[in-house]
Amino acid sequence: MFDRSRRRLLTRRSKPEQQRLPWMVNDDIFTDGCTRCGKCAAACETQIIIHGDGGFPEVDFKRGECTFCYRCADVCPEPLFHPQTTPAWAMVAEIGEGCLAYQHVECRSCGDMCETQAIRFRLQPGGVAQPELEATNCTGCGACVSVCPTSAITVVNPKNKES
Ligand code: SF4
Ligand code: SF4
Ligand code: SF4
């Protein structure tokens, strides 16, 4: 039997607020209960679930987007996910300083990928249009992440950005 407190010590994330998977219960309960069986990764329709911190599953948006299909939660044999009727998560995209448009280079790749139009471009007189994220429209699907040529976009929990 693996000692629980030791398991936590080995697996606790430096940023536990970043949800590993949609609909996931909190990180402590998840790392206590997840057996790392890999069923969620095998079931993911976009194949974005990888072995993350401590070998636990987590989404990697560099591989693609989450379609919120709920397969990862459905296939999990442990009680580690909230019902599909609840919000998947609070995660939203964040555009970092590496954005080409911020360096006055034309690019709208992220906006083109965003189904909910959470990223819009504001025209600048005589300049390059700048991206603006409307967080309330962002589902945290991550579709904008892999298309960004400078890897400027991350998906974060806005409530914990300062921690
Ligand atoms: S909800 Fe679907 S697409 Fe998203 S991580 Fe789970 S299995 Fe993959
Ligand atoms: S795809 Fe990346 S570089 Fe292009 S506008 Fe969006 S954040 Fe900026
Ligand atoms: S995470 Fe999804 S919804 Fe949010 S800005 Fe990116 S593409 Fe749009």
TrEMBL record:
- PROSITE patterns this protein is in? 4FE4S_FER_1, 4FE4S_FER_2
For activity, the cofactor(s) needed are: [4Fe-4S] cluster
The GO terms describing molecular function are:
4 iron, 4 sulfur cluster binding; metal ion binding
Q: Where in the cell is it found?
A: Cytoplasm
Cross-referenced Gene3D superfamilies, in alphabetical order?
3.30.70.20
Q: Which UniProt keywords apply?
A: 4Fe-4S, Cytoplasm, Iron, Iron-sulfur, Metal-binding, Repeat
Q: What is this protein called?
A: Ferredoxin-type protein NapF
State the species of origin. Photobacterium ganghwense
Identify the taxonomic lineage of the organism of origin: Bacteria, Pseudomonadati, Pseudomonadota, Gammaproteobacteria, Vibrionales
